[in-house]
Structure prediction request, 221 residues.
Amino acid sequence: MDWIKKTFFILFINLSFTAILFGQANEELTTKNDFWTGVSFKYKLNKKIAFNLDNQVRITDNLNEIRSTFFEFGVKYKFNKYFSARAQHRYIIRSKERHVNRFTLDATGRWKLKPVKLELSYRFRIQHGAVTFTKEPSSFIRNRFQARYSLFKKMKVFARYESFYQFNDKNRFRQNLFAAGLYLKVNKQLDLSIFYRFDQKINTKNPERRNIIAVLVTYEL
Prediction:
């Protein structure tokens, strides 16, 4: 089993640096460095239904400016050990009257591969948002693929890729993201998530990339 752990760990490291190498290929892009932090509260009503309430602050421009902060409420329904669905509403506060109401609907499948302690997941998301002042819409279909591996009893590492396909008369792929990081189980109620994320906008006149470091806390009530 040791060789399986070593092989996956090497793969994880390679995936975590893919975003950096990808971003260095085009020096004409606008690059920004961001930091995200926040807390999420979760409450399980029963084995099927769970609620979440999140607050997050996102800092940009090399940590010199608050890009946004948001509050999000969601409810999750677990059909079985493989499939679940989630509906969420997020209110995003931005400068220059660019506040956004955003709604998402997720369908997620998870599969655990034993005995290698590897979990594969796929999330299909429908997302619609609108600027509260101008009513400018923004609608996406997002496809996310993730691999998560248990290194230790209280530590898991993950790598993920996600694509964004926009409607609103655009009808094209507009963004790719890569992320890699780890989950730490601090105690029965508290989880810590630390990751690096690389966002790359595509098919636009003003391409932009973001290097993001995130530290997020989850508390289960």
Q: What stands out?
A: Residues 16-27 have pLDDT under 50 and may be disordered. The first strand starts at residue 30 and ends at 44. The chain is about 10% helix and 65% strand.
